[in-house]
Write a structure and sequence with these properties.
Rossmann fold; 36% strand; 6 domains; alpha+beta; Immunoglobulin-like
Length: 876
């Protein structure tokens, strides 16, 4: 041992001697709940994480007392170590070491949190936001999807996957769906469009539940990481929660978004909320972190799904902080919010030249959310349903402040509220220093927010929930009082009087200051915001569609719903009194093709929708794919003034040339070489509406004109063929050809002109036997195109034939029977000795000749009670 090591041993000797003589019962506060169960049970090669105050001293202690154990750095901090090679006795010794602050579980098997794959960008206002702010697409930003790898070759992610060549396989459908919700370009279909369709996407493995390496994330330009996965319900502030909070401090512009989980009806197995069904059931201690976001899931109507995990966090903090539409669970909801976070970051960067702190993104998202469930904040809906339009408007209109707080200091910000506002709301958020592992309360720096009406002196405190671990207490509505638990605080005022307001941010207790903070605010008049239409696709003619909007006004209000085609001055009544608070209405769209508008009339106010299309989604078909050109075609849409064809570029669908007035378009050899993906959309009044599904022209089952060429029956008394083409465009004639004994083909029937894509040919050859056929197409330019070759057997009903004859010994003899009932086949040699038998029900049957000597044989076939047939067979 070196002199330095001996000096360290002497320095630590009192502690080491104490550790050797310490009692062996495990002190519960030092052990994670997952390690407290059956602590004396045998565990072979247990792996844990430990939080230590002095890593060099701990490593020395480990070498002296647990020499078979190994310690490696687990997270970004040297104070978090992974220790392997522990049995039950070693774990007990580790847990009582004075050099260990906390013993946590190692990596657990994470699982994806989604049951279905369905989403709708209109529910949270994403489609409206995309229409209103088309420049906000996530351009120049990168979002990481931490779980299993997504498909880097997915059409909707084309050209925007970071390090696509290094992706491990196989791809996960769940991860691909999350990537599409975050940043799909809509190349495959309008429903394949995500929230931030130009964002770059990266993958990360959730096998390691600690945060990814911070410098690597920064080098890759990742500003948001999505976590749509969970483990079991874990209610404590563990090493993973600590490390995520620490990383958010080290990289203040990095936002982590977690799904809350799909265990909403379960009870926590440990912690203060143990045994309370439907409370405190977030799936993973990493979701207990303060500086991240946890997202719950709602159904399309805005009701939190029964399986969406609820709060509070282990110490009574608000979790989840936000909810969003997730038909399949909280995975989808988290992905949508991750995409929205990228748009908020871009809006701030484009206006101010830099990415915002994650605390500001968090404040903006929570302040703009639409209240759901019990009034104000609650442990089921958090601060409400994500609202893309409100979040982006907050940033673009500069309705936020940033600053720093110290203990006892008071920062004041002024807001001038105009008359006629329905609500004033302000939200404070800050990225708090990490707490110690297993801390009873996670908050370190405690800030307070208060709102003051300057004219009247009236004051408002933030909304606070009761954290008392009883179902009746957790269900209580929020009350106004100081908040000393959360690092997010929100104040709302209904019908604020016009005038000047002051927002005061004070440092109640700031032991690790100064503390940076962000403050977002909004005031909103009585208004109605349409969410659907528009949608990613068109409203289908004659079908029921659900209209969505966001009503900001009295809960009892009703509105008159009206409709008109674009260009008409008169509005048609849909319903005289639609309740506005449910924010949805089932509308039977008229059976027409048109650009149109809807509107609500509420008192003297009118709220028109954007112009939307009532039109079918066009299906693109391939007429032919020949070496020199491909014909694309589609059905005619009544009322369409033209059609726009799109082709896939490096990343997105782009218009191909000028709009077509016909329902077909020829793609040249050069264009075919550029891309195989195309879509088409009708134009209404010169405006291209949403295209239909994108197709790969090379995989549509249409070669050069031919879709299929097949015999109607393989064995028949009359040979008949059915032909299906992709198109009759430029065709002059179609000819059935039969192969002659010399191998050449001769024409047996010609159809001219060809007026239908489906037709039939008949042929009656001169003798029973096997024949080969093909179809030749002649076009107006004199070119000829051939189908593949098909065989057919001419044979009268009830008869049989055998091929080939002679047959090589060991080869299969084909027995053809024009019979609908089973037949019995027997093979005899010329001395009448039985050789083979088989029972067959098919038209074509094979007889094995292995082991038969060359010579003449008799093949006898018996069908039902009919007289048998006998054929002479030569085996060579």
């Amino acid at each position: 041992m070196t002199r330095g090591c001996w000096a360290l041993v002497l320095l630590l000797l009192p502690q080491l001697l104490w550790a050797q003589s310490a009692p062996r019962p495990l002190p519960q506060p030092k052990l994670a709940p997952g390690l407290q169960a059956s602590p004396t049970a045998s565990r072979a090669s247990q792996t844990v994480r430990v939080s230590v105050p002095d890593p060099p001293a701990f490593r020395l202690w480990l070498r002296l007392h647990l020499p078979t154990a190994q310690a490696t750095q687990a997270g970004a901090s040297a104070r978090t170590l992974t220790v392997t090679g522990l049995d039950a006795a070693a774990l007990a010794q580790l847990a009582v070491s004075p050099l260990v602050d906390f013993v946590d579980v190692g990596d657990r098997r994470a699982h994806e949190e989604r049951r279905l794959n369905n989403s709708d960008l209109s529910v949270n206002g994403f489609t409206v936001a995309q229409a209103r702010y088309p420049q906000l697409t996530g351009q120049g930003l990168t979002v990481s999807i931490k779980e299993q790898p997504f498909d880097p070759n997915d059409l909707d992610l084309k050209g925007r996957v970071a390090a696509a060549g290094a992706f491990p396989g196989p791809a996960s459908d769940h991860a691909t769906a999350m990537a599409t919700l975050i940043g799909g370009a809509g190349n495959s279909d309008p429903l394949g469009r995500g929230v931030a369709p130009a964002v770059r996407l990266a993958t990360s493995d959730f096998a390691r539940l600690l945060p990814d390496d911070g410098p690597q994330l920064a080098q890759a330009g990742i500003s948001i990481q999505n976590h749509s996965y969970g483990v079991g319900i874990e209610n404590y502030y563990g090493v993973e929660a600590l490390e995520y909070d620490r990383q958010c401090q080290q990289y203040p512009q990095l936002l982590h978004v977690f799904s809350s989980g799909n265990s909403g009806t379960a009870a926590s197995p440990s912690g203060a909320y143990q045994g309370l069904p439907s409370w405190a059931n977030l799936t993973g201690q990493f979701k207990m972190s303060k500086n991240t976001l946890s997202i719950g899931a709602t159904d399309p109507s805005g009701q939190v799904a029964a399986l969406s995990s609820r709060g509070p966090a282990y110490d009574g903090r608000v979790k989840p902080e936000l909810v969003a539409y997730g038909e399949g669970g909280s995975s989808e909801a988290a992905a949508l919010v991750s995409g929205l976070g990228a748009l908020v970051q871009q809006a701030h960067r484009d206006l101010r030249g830099s990415l915002p702190p994650a605390a500001l993104v968090k404040a903006v998202l929570l302040n703009s959310a639409d209240d759901l469930g019990r009034p104000e904040v609650d442990f089921v809906n958090g601060f409400g349903q994500a609202d893309a339009v409100g979040a982006l408007a907050t940033v673009r209109e500069g309705r936020f402040f940033t600053g720093t707080a110290t203990a006892g200091a008071d920062r004041v910000f002024t807001i001038v509220v105009p008359a006629g506002q329905h609500q004033l709301k302000a939200t404070l958020a800050w990225s708090d220093p990490e707490a110690a592992a297993n801390a009873p309360q996670a908050l370190i720096n405690d800030l307070d927010v208060e709102l003051l009406a300057v004219a009247t002196g009236q004051r408002w405190l933030p909304w606070v929930l009761s954290p008392t671990p009883r179902a009746d207490s957790l269900s209580l509505p929020a009350r106004r009082r100081p908040d000393h638990l959360n690092n997010v605080e929100q104040i709302t005022v209904v019908a604020p009087a016009p005038g000047t307001y002051e927002v005061h941010v004070r440092g109640f207790a700031v032991p690790q200051g100064p503390q940076a903070f962000s403050l977002a605010y909004e005031y909103s008049p009585v208004a109605l915001e349409w969410h659907r239409p528009p949608t990613p696709g068109n409203v289908q003619p004659g079908a029921s569609t659900t209209l969505l909007w966001q009503w900001n006004g009295p809960a009892t209000a009703t509105g008159r719903l009206e409709y008109r085609p674009l260009g008409r001055t008169q509005w048609r009544l849909v319903s005289a009194a639609v309740p506005l608070a449910p924010n949805r209405y089932a509308w039977a769209a008229p059976d027409t093709t048109a650009l149109a508008q809807l509107r609500f009339v509420v008192g003297s106010q009118t709220f028109p929708s954007d112009t939307f299309a009532i039109a079918p989604a066009l299906a693109l078909q391939v007429g032919y794919t020949c070496p020199d050109e491909t014909l694309l075609q589609w059905r005619q849409v009544p009322g369409a003034t033209g059609y726009q064809v799109y082709q896939l570029s490096a990343t997105t669908l782009v218009p191909l040339g000028l709009p077509a007035t016909d329902t077909a378009l020829v793609i040249s050899r050069t264009q075919m070489a550029l891309t195989r993906y195309y879509a088409v959309a009708p134009q209404l009044r010169g405006i291209a509406v949403a295209p239909g599904t994108t197709i790969d022209f090379a995989t549509q089952g249409t070669a050069c004109y031919f879709r299929s060429f097949l015999p109607r029956q393989l064995v028949d008394a009359l040979i008949r063929f059915d032909v299906e083409l992709g198109t009759v465009f430029k065709l002059r004639s179609a000819t059935l050809e039969r192969q002659r004994p010399d191998g050449r083909f001769e024409a047996v029937q010609t159809i001219s002109p060809v007026t239908s894509v489906r037709f039939a040919f008949n042929d009656q050859p001169p003798a029973a036997g096997r024949y080969l056929y093909r179809v030749r197409l002649d076009n107006v330019a004199g070119q000829q195109f051939y189908s593949g070759t098909e065989e057919a057997f001419l044979l009268r009903a009830g008869l049989i034939q055998a091929y080939p004859n002679p047959v090589q010994a060991g080869a299969s003899l084909t027995v053809v029977a024009n019979s609908t009932s089973p037949i019995t086949i027997r093979l005899y040699d010329m001395l009448g000795r039985f050789q083979r038998t088989a029972t067959a029900e098919g038209l074509i049957n094979l007889i094995d000749t292995n082991g038969l000597k060359p010579g003449l044989y008799m093949l006898k076939v018996q069908q039902d009670n009919n007289a048998g047939q006998t054929l002479k067979i030569v085996i060579q």
